[in-house]
Amino acid sequence: MGFVHLHVHTEYSLLDGSNKISEYVARVKELGMDSAAITDHGVMYGVIDFYREAKKAGINPILGCEVYVAPGSRFDREITGGDDRYYHLVLLAENNTGYANLMKIVSKGFVDGYYYKPRVDKELLREYHEGIIALSACLAGEVQRYLVRGLYEDAKEQALEYQDIFGKGNYFLELQDHGIPEQKLVNQRLLQMSEELGIELAATNDVHYTYAEDEKPHDILLCIQTGKKLADENRMRYEGGQYYVKSQEEMTALFPYARQAVENTQKIADRCHVEIEFGVTKLPKYDVPDGMTSWEYLNKLCYEGLDQRYGEEAQENRERLKYELDTIQNMGYVDYFLIVWDFIKYAKDHGIAVGPGRGSAAGSIVSYCLGITDIDPLRYQLLFERFLNPERVSMPDIDVDFCFERRQEVIDYVVRKYGEDRVVQIVTFGTMAAKGVVRDVGRAMDLPYALCDSVAKMIPARIPDMKVVTIDAALRVNPELASAYQSDEQIRELIDMSKRLEGLPRHTSMHAAGVVISQKAVEVRDDDTPEILQKRVMEQAEWTILPQAIEDIANGRIKIVDGIVKYHN
Asked: Which residues pair with 296 in a beta bridge?
């Protein structure tokens, strides 16, 4: 049996993990492991990047999160303070159901439970436990907290409760050893508890950086997070230098008394298989007037718009409009155009300034007739095919500019129309860029400001043919910087430390106007059983869609032409 890392923080544990996903996956591959997990603190920002990178490397990606569990309800505030404000718990998705449930848990932690951290509670865990494997986490886990305080019976009670939530065989007591004295005591108690309660053990290393030599740059990262300097005695730190991606041999040597706990990590990994589908467009439906289909309504709006836009010339432009509409229908984008038309119409009806349209969308007469754009594609001989054609794989891109002062009104309208549970805004990440990271690292190392500033200024703002300027690139193009790096030991250390932290996400923010509208979700009610929910899904989806599809095929409205499914209304 092998060993698999199941407790791993990446760069997306912001300013806490310096373990870059690409380096992490490469290191796991180098160590001969067939699986690896991601369990960032309270978030799942890095899951997709990790999934893609792991799959590319032939590694089984285990998708997880180290969540914060509130001692009572996630809705409570100021019930307690300090360390007891929340407990850590590692959750791993065993399958796609578990992955969906994990996303719900994490999302509700932000929406319902945010208080210093995105907190969940046991009620939420019980509701969305299916398909999830849980580990008791580090010394900040609830069971471990009780053990540190000598409250063994209380710890047993909590362990049994977690086992009850996730089910027998889906909850593991987690052993860790980073040279911390408390861990020695806790591990002894966990071994005893495992024997008494029949709850299996899993040995993990609380990974925060990739290589052992990353200890110092990671320590600097913690200083950046807390606004401290390396010289400060009373500051947050991970002592011992043990928080890196260890080999199976190192983990086996750490736990000679618990070999089964090491082997259990491989057994858990072998159970975890999540398949994420990419490249499939899943558009929401637009709510059209009664008695009409989306296709009929789009045609109505477009031909009315054609008459308004072109007047006497409308008739001669009908062929171009029909060609575009047929292409849009065959490619499945009817509702997409209606949705865009709707929120642009809302903005114009309420006096919110909207741009005239830009990019390839200006080449579409459909966009022009709908009022999505105000540029006549025929007058300027713009090509529709540049915007949309049957050979295009990606969705058509319609760039829309709203007045920034009233843009939120449009977003609020979309939320009201499609529902809070179906509309979200996109997160963006600020990163530690070359100039900034040098200044941050220098501050943490307590180097003179003038020195750090002079080094940062040697890094050019732009380098030809490079989208992002890196420190390595700056060393190549600026002889002065390269010379200082070679001759000055202090500058060399500053740059070396900065290079290890360069590119890490620093903070999150909300995208100004990046909005996602999802398909209709099936309502999940408090008293639903899996059987009842399955029946409702059938009633709302298959029992409605399938008969309609059969009728359309029988009446020749759905045909397969050259391997492409085409719908003829």
From this structure: none
| 514/360 Cα distance (integer angstroms) | 19
Quick one: average pLDDT of 390-411? Answer: 86
pTM of the model: 0.85
Domain ranges of the chain: 21-148+158-210+245-271, 522-569
| Residues counted in the chain | 569
CA distance linking residue 511 with residue 428, whole number of Å: 6
More confident call, 529 vs 256: 256
Spatial distance between the Cα atoms of 220 and 230, rounded to a whole number of angstroms = 7
Q: Got the DSSP string for 94-131? A: -SHHHHHHHHHHHHHHHHTTEESEEEE-HHHHHHT-TT
Q: Scan for tokens 């939420």, then name that residue.
A: 124
Render pLDDT for 162-198 as a digit per residue (tens, 0 to 9). Answer: 999 999 999 999 999 999 999 999 999 999 999 999 9
Separation CA 389–CA 396 (nearest Å)? 9
Integer Cα distance of 35 and 1 in angstroms: 13
For residue 546, what pLDDT is reported? 57
Q: Whole-angstrom Cα distance, residue 454 to residue 364?
A: 52
User: Which residues, 6+ apart, have CB-to-CB distance to 519 below 8 Å?
Assistant: 282, 283, 284, 285, 422
Measure the CA–CA gap between 456 and 435, rounded to whole angstroms. 5
Q: Is 430 helix (H, G, I), strand (E, B) or coil?
A: strand
Strand-pair partners of 88: 68, 141
For 21-148+158-210+245-271, CATH gives 3.20.20.140
Say how far apart CA 106 and CA 118 lie, in whole Å.
8
DSSP state of 405: T
Cα–Cα distance measured from residue 301 to residue 179, given in angstroms and rounded to the nearest whole number: 70
Per residue in 319-373, pLDDT tens? 999 999 999 999 889 999 999 999 999 999 999 999 988 888 989 999 999 999 9
420: its two tokens: 């809070």
Q: Which residues of 335-352 are buried (b: 16+ CB within 10 A; e: fewer)?
A: bbbbbbbbbbebbeeeeb
Average pLDDT, the chain: 90
C-beta of residue 404 within 8 angstroms of C-beta of residue 464: no
Distance CA 171, CA 135 (A): 6
Task: Give the whole-angstrom CA distance, residue 207 versus residue 12.
Answer: 13
Neighbouring C-beta atoms of residue 390, cutoff 10 Å: 10
CA angle 172, 177, 178 (to 5 degrees): 135
Mean pLDDT of the 536-548 span: 54
